[in-house]
Amino acid sequence: MGEGQFKLQDGAVDELNHLDADLEAAVDSRDEDAFHPALHKLLERARELSVALPADAIEPSDLILPGEGATIEEVHDLLSNDGLIPG
To answer: pTM of the full predicted structure?
Structure first.
């Protein structure tokens, strides 16, 4: 996210997976009008469902989210078969 590391609350992955699916659909169809709101919603909810780790903390990451200003092409390159959120 370009904002440091965050620890997701328990159970957050299920909710984020739904938002990830919306984002992935927008990317797959190259729908710019749906892409930006879907990315914003995913990042906003990820922030709400997490706690920021201290700036000097270095923890293993289970997922990496793109920054708010990411392009549809950049997000396409990040996507795996499971989307951005594994599981």
So the answer is: 0.82
